Amino acid sequence: MNRELREFRRLERVCLEQAELSTLDLARIGLLKVAADCRVAAEAIEAKSPARPTTGFIAALKQSLSPVRSSGRH
Questions:
Q1: Which of 3, 41, 35 has the alpha carbon at shortest distance from 16?
Q2: Which of 24, 42, 60, 62 could make an SS bond with 8 (beta carbons 3.0 to 4.6 A apart)?
Q3: CA 31 remoteness from chain centre
Q4: What is the dihedral of CA 12, 18, 24, 29, to 10 degrees?
Q5: pLDDT tens track for 5-28
Q6: 3-state SS of the chain?
Q7: φ, ψ (nearest 5 deg) of residue 49
Q8: Considering the entire predicted model, what is its pTM?
């Protein structure tokens, strides 16, 4: 799935770059439509993929699992 996501993002980028270079309106419009379709496909793949834990979540998890240190006060 990750490979498909990268490929759709790559195709979107290529289409956008080519649309910028295109001198024909019809070609530019077509490339922009394909880029939009690639973006939609990539977003659909991202929506299906399991959520990745954020670094904040990982840090909080590590802290909660680490041994409790005493402060020296009683």
A1: 35
A2: 42
A3: 21
A4: 10
A5: 999 999 999 999 999 999 999 999
A6: CHHHHHHHHHHHHHHHHHHHHCCCHHHHHHHHHHHHHHHHHHHHHHHHCCCCCCHHHHHHHHHHHCCCCCCCCC
A7: -70, 150
A8: 0.65
